Amino acid sequence: MSTISSSTPPLRTTAGSASTASATVANGSPAPSVQAATAVRPDVQISSLASRLNKAENGSGIADPGLSHDQLGDKVRQNIAAINYPLTEENKARMAREVPVPADASALASAAAANAYVNDLKGPNPFAGLSREQLSTIANDDSGTFTTNERHAAYRQAYDEEQQWRTQAVAQAMAEYHATGKLTDFFQSVLAHFDTLPRAEQSLYPADYATDLQKKIDLDFDDFTNTPGGQGGAHAQSGIDVPGLAKWPAMR
Description:
Blueprint: E1 24-25, H1 42-59, H2 69-83, H3 89-96, E2 98-99, H4 105-119, H5 132-139, H6 148-180, H7 184-196, H8 199-202, H9 209-219, E3 221-222, E4 227-228
Parallel strand pairs: 1-2
Antiparallel strand pairs: 3-4
Helix pairs in contact: 4-6, 5-6, 6-7, 7-9
């Protein structure tokens, strides 16, 4: 039988409050004390987020179109390592002092919401509802536009969405296998999903990942008859782990 894995790295969660004194901008430089963000109109928040996303997309290290697949993957893993910090009280307090650049009211409100989320991961993620491309842009922003906790929240949202897709994909794969002895539809679903992922996320997979999936689709292997397409012929074995979180650095 083909190998199907739904296991994922465990999530380590903690809760607690964080200090907001001695603020620093998101790139680590000192910043003046920040007053509590006042309420911001929804239309202003949307406009500010669009502007911040554009700045982050154009200013981050992964924006270089000349990066190879492996080079991009290395940068993305470095970004994840930077934002996937141990959620101790001391670390959370330190990260909560970061200030986005520029520090307008809506950006400060977003940063405060991310701080609150990191302090209590059972609460609402402030970036729920954004596209995977937008989440990837925030998570991989190293320009200081978004704070570490905003980036952490964005990455965790994408992580959780991938987990949800993965759980559903495994269930569908098992149903297909038990009914037909094949995983062809599953491979097609995986390839279609992979094609929708941001380039930064795709870089976490092997460079030949899509090509390998297409080969498995073309093979149309039937485990019940132990033949490609169930029509006889040379023996071949299909097999793939469900893509997603297991190929990403584990969240803390």
